[in-house]
C-alpha cells in the first residue's frame, strides 16, 4: 500500500494506534510524517491531538504519578469527548445526550466493565509495566468500548443520484450492489447500510440492480407503486412517475414483488423467478408473465432499444428519454401503430430511419423536436 493510499484512508477516521506510537516516539519517519500531516489538515484534529497528548504526558510524568491528583480524568475525558463529538459533526443536542451516557458508563458503582478495567490497570502496574504503556492499554480499550455508543445513534446520510433525459449512470452502493440508472430516473439510498438494518433504496424511473448477496439482510427497492424484496439477484425495475404501472423483470435469482396494500399473510404479493416479469397495476393488481422476452426490459443496459408490440407513443416516450428529444405525432391515426424491433442505440438518425421504414411513416427534425407524420401528409388526419 503506497503512502498516498494510506493518507486517504486516514482522512475519515482517527488513527489511534499510530497516534499512540507517535506519542511514544515509536513511529517510523514515514508514519511520523503521516500523523503530522493528518493533524495539520484539520483544526479539530489539532485540538484532539492536544488533549490526547495531555493525558499521555500526565501518565508518563513520574512526579505527577506520586501525587493523588496527578491527572483529573473526569475533566480531561470531558475535553476529549467534546473533541470527538466536534470531529464527528454531532449537534449540540446529540453531544449532551452522549455526554450523559458517557458519565453513566464511567461511574464505577454503575459499571462492571469500568471496575474490571480498573482492576486490570492495578494488575498491570503490579507487574512493573510502565505507566504510560498501561495508560495506552486502558485508554485504547476504553475508547474502543465506547466507540459503538458514539456512532450507533447516528443515522446514515441519504444520498441521491438523478439522471436527466439522455443521461445514464452506474453506481456501486456501500454493500457492493451495482446499480445502472436509466435516463430521467432517481435513486435515493443511504451512504452506508448498518449491519443490523435491512438494505432499502427508493427508485423513481428505471434501474437495473445487481444485488450483492447477503442471506441475513434483505435488499428492498421501494417505488411509489410497489416494493421488491431480494437477498441477492439481478433484476430490472421500471416505475415511471405518472404511470400507474410498475414492471419488474428478473434476470437472475428471484424476488418478491409486493403491492402497497400487501398484508402480513402475503396477499397481493408474488414470487418472481429468473425469466419472469411481474407488473403492478394501480396499487393493488398483480400480473405475472412466465418466460418473457427479457431483452425488452434489460436490453438498454447493453445499449439496445428493444420494442415488442409497443405503441408509437410508447416508442417515442422511450426514445425521447434516451436521446433527449421531443416528439410530436402529427396524425392521430399513427398512435395505434405498433412496433417490434431490436435497435442498437447508436445515432438517433439511424434509429429514426429504421422506425420510419418499418412503419411506413416520415419524420422531420427541427431544433431537437421530431415530427412524425404519415407519408405524403403534413397534418392530422
Automatic annotation (TrEMBL):
List the top taxonomic levels of the source.
Answer: Bacteria, Pseudomonadati, Rhodothermota, Rhodothermia, Rhodothermales
Specify the domain of life of the species encoding this protein.
Bacteria
Composition bias, kind Low complexity: at what positions?
Answer: 87-103
All copies of the Protein FecR C-terminal domain together span: 305-371
Fetch the InterPro entries from UniProt: FecR, FecR_C, Ferrdict_sens_TM
Output one GO MF annotation: sigma factor antagonist activity
**Keyword vocabulary terms for this entry:** Membrane, Transmembrane, Transmembrane helix
Give the start-end ranges of region Disordered.
84-111
Q: Where is the FecR protein domain?
A: 160-255
Instruction: Give the protein's recorded name.
Output: Ferric-dicitrate binding protein FerR (Iron transport regulator)
Amino acid at each position: 500500500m503506497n503512502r498516498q493510499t494510506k493518507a486517504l484512508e486516514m482522512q475519515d477516521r482517527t488513527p489511534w494506534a499510530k497516534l499512540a506510537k507517535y506519542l511514544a516516539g515509536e513511529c517510523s519517519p514515514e508514519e511520523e510524517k503521516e500523523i503530522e500531516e493528518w493533524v495539520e489538515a484539520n483544526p479539530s484534529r489539532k485540538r484532539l491531538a492536544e488533549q490526547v497528548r495531555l493525558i499521555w504526558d500526565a501518565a508518563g510524568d513520574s512526579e505527577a504519578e506520586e501525587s493523588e491528583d496527578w491527572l483529573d480524568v473526569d475533566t480531561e475525558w470531558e475535553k476529549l469527548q467534546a473533541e470527538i463529538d466536534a470531529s464527528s459533526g454531532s449537534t449540540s443536542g446529540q453531544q449532551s445526550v452522549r455526554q450523559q451516557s458517557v458519565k453513566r458508563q464511567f461511574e464505577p458503582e454503575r459499571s462492571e466493565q469500568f471496575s474490571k478495567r480498573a482492576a486490570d490497570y492495578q494488575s498491570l502496574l503490579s507487574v512493573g509495566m510502565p505507566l504510560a504503556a498501561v495508560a495506552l492499554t486502558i485508554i485504547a480499550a476504553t475508547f474502543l468500548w465506547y466507540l459503538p455508543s458514539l456512532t450507533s445513534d447516528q443515522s446514515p446520510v441519504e444520498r441521491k443520484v438523478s439522471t436527466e433525459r439522455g443521461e445514464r449512470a452506474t453506481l456501486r452502493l456501500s454493500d457492493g450492489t451495482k446499480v445502472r440508472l436509466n435516463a430521467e430516473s432517481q435513486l435515493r439510498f443511504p451512504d452506508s447500510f448498518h449491519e443490523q438494518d435491512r438494505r432499502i433504496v427508493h427508485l423513481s424511473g428505471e434501474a437495473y440492480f445487481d444485488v450483492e448477496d447477503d442471506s441475513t439482510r434483505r435488499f428492498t427497492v421501494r417505488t411509489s407503486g410497489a416494493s421488491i424484496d431480494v437477498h441477492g439477484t439481478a433484476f430490472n425495475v421500471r416505475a415511471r412517475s405518472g404511470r400507474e404501472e410498475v414492471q419488474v423483470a428478473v434476470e437472475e435469482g428471484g424476488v418478491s414483488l409486493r403491492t402497497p396494500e400487501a398484508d402480513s399473510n402475503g396477499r397481493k404479493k408474488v414470487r418472481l423467478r429468473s425469466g419472469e416479469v411481474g407488473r403492478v397495476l394501480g396499487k393493488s393488481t398483480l400480473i405475472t408473465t412466465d418466460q418473457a422476452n427479457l431483452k425488452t426490459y434489460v436490453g438498454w443496459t447493453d445499449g439496445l432499444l428493444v420494442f415488442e408490440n409497443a405503441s408509437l407513443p410508447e416508442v417515442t416516450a422511450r426514445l425521447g428519454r434516451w436521446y433527449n428529444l421531443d416528439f410530436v405525432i402529427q396524425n392521430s391515426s399513427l398512435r395505434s401503430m405498433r412496433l417490434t424491433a431490436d435497435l442498437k442505440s447508436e445515432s438517433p438518425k439511424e434509429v429514426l430511419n429504421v422506425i420510419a421504414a418499418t412503419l411506413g411513416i416520415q419524420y422531420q427534425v427541427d431544433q431537437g423536436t421530431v415530427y412524425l407524420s404519415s407519408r405524403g401528409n403534413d397534418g392530422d388526419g
